[in-house]
Amino acid sequence: MFFFEALQQGLCGPHDGIDEAIQNLHHYGIDWDDLADEAIMHHYNHHNPDEMLPIDHPHTNQPSHLFLIEVPAFECPFETFKRTFDDQLENFSGGLLSMPEYQSRNMATRKILWMRALDLMLSIV
Predict the structure, then answer these.
(1) Are 87 and 18 a contacting pair, CB within 8 Å?
(2) pTM (2 decimals)?
(3) Could you read off the pLDDT of 14-68 as tens digits, one per residue?
(4) Distance between CA atoms of residues 112 and 42, nearest Å
(5) All residues at 6 or more sequence positions from 73 whose CB lies less than 8 Å from its CB, including other chains
(6) 10 torsion bin: left (phi>0), alpha (psi -120 to 50), beta (else)
(7) Nearest CA among 37, 39, 61 for reference residue 50
(8) Measured distance CA(100)–CA(91) in Å, rounded
(9) Rounded distance between C-alpha atoms, residue 120 and residue 102, angstroms
């Protein structure tokens, strides 16, 4: 589950300490090495014939207006002291893994799992 990953690895993404100014939004995120690779481009053009446009073509799929989406800071509900955090995370993980809903792929059962996980977390904190 994402929650465990965030607790163990920390958050990653646009707010992980890198304050990057985007110079050219039109070309942001383009892998220039792949675009220069003839084998990759041949494969891409073969399977996407409707999208065979030169890179400097004025037509793009860029929206006319970009929205700012603010994501609040994630605060871990467990204690931040290493020993206490590890104990709380171990209790939470063990409790979660022992729930019968954990093995289910049914989304209604997964919803119950999330509710029970929240109750478990609140009982540990």
Answers:
(1) no
(2) 0.42
(3) 544 456 677 776 667 777 788 778 888 888 888 887 776 554 445 556 666 778 8
(4) 48
(5) 15
(6) left
(7) 61
(8) 16
(9) 13
